[in-house]
Amino acid sequence: MKEKLKQISDVKWQIPLGARERMNVPCIVYGTKKIIEQAEDAALEQLTNVACLPGVIAPVIGAPDIHWGYGLPMGAIGAFDAEEGIISSGCTGFDINCGIYLIKTNLEKQEVVKNIRPLIDLLFKNIPSGVGATGRLKVTEQQIDDVLVNGAKWAVENGYAIEADLERMEENGCIAGADPTKVSSLAKKRGRPQLGTLGAGNHFLEVQAVDQIFDERTAKIFGIENKDQVVIMLHCGSRGLGHEVATDYLKIHAQASKKYNIWLPDSQLVCAPAKSNEGQDYFKAMKCAANYAFCNRTVMTGWVRETFEKIFKKSWEDMEMQTVYHLCHNICKLEEHEVDGKKRKLYVHRKGATRALPPGHPLVPKIYRSAGQPVLIAGTMGTASYILVGTEKGKESFYSTCHGSGRVMSRNAAIKKFWGSDVKKALEAKGKIVRATHPKVLSEEAPEAYKDVDEVIESVHKAGISLKVARMVPLGTAKG
Amino acid sequence: MRYKFIEDLTSDVMFEAYGKTVEELFVNASLALFEVVCQIKKIKPEKSINVKAEGEDLKDLLYNWLSNLLAQSEINELFFCKFDIKIKKNSKYTATGKALGEPITKEKGETVVKGITYYKFKLEKTKEGYIARIACDI
Q1: Chain B contact residues (CB < 8 Å to A)
Q2: Is there a contact between B38 and A131 if contact means CB atoms under 8 Å apart?
Q3: Can you say whether residue B85 is alpha, beta or left, with left for phi > 0 and alpha for psi between -120 and 50 degrees?
Q4: pLDDT, tens digit, for every residue of A385-396?
Q5: If you measure CA to CA, which chain B residue comes closest to A254?
Q6: Rg for chain A (alpha carbons), in Å?
Q7: Mean pLDDT across chain A
Q8: β-sheet bridge partners, residue A207
Q9: Nearest to A405 by CA among A375, A447, A444
Q10: Which helix (DSSP H) or strand (DSSP E) does residue A235 occupy?
């Protein structure tokens, strides 16, 4: 597939119509030459598969962190007409509303570094993580429905966060139209004990220090005042509840694809017509899972603040631990976009991709509206993370950008190549403290298993679909 | 050989499971799945739960069985290490059986399997018995 790429600019490439049979629209991939060289052929082919689906709107997008996924690759965006198109549980994936929560502080790097070991140890203890981790709270059957409808608002009502946090969240931490009757009792059973848990794999909680500010004005608006300022990044999703919603609807969409005669170039791209019951039921259930994830991360934020209070003997308000932003990067949303000069409603599937709205957009929180939407990009344990901002140029990518660094090495290969204890030592030699449930997680998530995040960010910055605001480096990480 | 892991996916895990009978295939696929989830060799079959799944055909049944095991592991807060499975065919295929294991502990966990996927998913009858290929999203 790579040989069929046409270079449009330094950082923009097209997979033209006809690169494979039955494509309805071309695909666009963003990335420097190095990023494109690293991209897997199979991932590019997956973009072209999505380009074959009914009602797809040009173009199907690959972000520079693209890597092979199921159906839609990770680091990709597929938009479909709300009338003629489809909704796909396969395109959204298993970890519905996997996302990022960023909290700022007024603490300086030096002060935190002195306490980093007890801080990470206590965060590791207070924020439940690992396979099958259960939370410190057990929600009842009635409460789980409230969580699914109200999302992060539930966390505020129950004292884990405050109203002002909600103003700094995508969708204010709650997507309207969630219907818990569309979520199976099995999914709810999985979700009840896991609210307020990090999970495992690439999910993490990281204490970071700002090491570069590229755009002082925007950084200031987002609450990033100076170099060495400490922030906290939380990366996780909707846990077993979201996994079960995906599993349940993949089966329903497999049937629906047959029922509505939708030709699938890949069986993992199962879907249903956007207006069908199967499509709309999934959309309502997916919103429930998304709200669970918003609530999950917000509950943990409360515990992060508590932990900082214990270590630094100050109130979280004194440490100015406000929310910077809270967003999702695995989601399907009904949005309005301009297509061929006309406004149209589209179902935009972002998988390992972040919404990035421009300055002035009504969905950007009022306090940030003059700057644009904050975009939070997670690096890996050893490398940098970024804050970006959405731009008007992002219109060409359905106001979307990348989400992370993207893997270049399989988990198995990483486990074979790196010893967890060596990864830990190497990070600690650089002054980065890591706590994980077991060393294998560290092998799997070794920084070398990922693309160079700086190169990924340069790609979207040069393309102009989102711009660099600040760069953060890890001081300490707690992993599941 | 009961099962083997295949190097195919950048971000995930794929395995093949084998069995002389379809029941043995299901047991071996279940064991492979829980080798991904936990340190299966350290898990003792202390507790047992009943598990059931249905499917239109054997492939569908295996998908549903493995998906249900993931759910039951979380709901019952158990890591599984042993399986006892019976498969019947009436109007649909049904698998009933027991999954045995011990309570989840952080130290014995390996990776969260988010789901069983349809990617290159297969179940075939061979000269020796049955073979299945399963890719897990992790």
Answers
A1: 5, 7, 9-13, 37-38, 63-64, 67, 70-71, 73-75, 77, 79, 104, 106-107, 109-112, 114-119, 121, 135, 137-138
A2: yes
A3: beta
A4: 999 999 999 999
A5: B118
A6: 21
A7: 94
A8: A232, A476
A9: A447
A10: strand A229-236
- pLDDT per residue over A390-438, tens digit each? 999 999 999 999 998 777 777 777 887 888 888 888 888 888 888 887 7
- Nearest one of A93, A86, A29, A24 to A268, comparing CA atoms: A93
CA atoms of A131 and A239, how far apart (whole Å): 10
Three-class secondary structure of residue A416 per DSSP: helix
- Between CA A62 and CA A74 the distance in angstroms is 8
Q: Testing the interface with A: which of B4, B7, B8, B11 to mutate, by most A Cβ within 10 A? A: B11
* Separation between Cα atoms, residue A311 and residue A442, nearest integer Å: 26
Q: Quick one: angle between helices A141-150 and A277-312, nearest 10?
A: 100
- Hey, what are A322's tokens? 């406000």
Pairs of residues, one from chain A and one from chain B, whose beta carbons lie less than 8 Å apart: 114
Whether residues A131 and B118 touch (CB distance < 8 A) is answered with no
**Cis bond before residue A358 (omega within 30° of 0):** no
- The residues, any chain, with a CB within 8 Å of residue A425's CB and separated by 6 or more, are none
- ipTM of the modeled complex: 0.89
Dist CA A173 CA A194 (whole Å)? 18
Q: How confident is the model at residue B11 (pLDDT cuts 50, 70, 90)?
A: low
**Interface probe with A: pick from B118, B121, B133, B134, most Cβ of A within 10 Å:** B118
For chain B, give the secondary structure using H, E and C. CCEEEECCCCCCEEEEEEECCHHHHHHHHHHHHHHHHECHHHCCCCEEEEEEEEECCHHHHHHHHHHHHHHHHHHCCEEEEEEEEEEEECCCEEEEEEEEEEECCHHHECCCCCEECCCCCEEEECCCCEEEEEEEEC
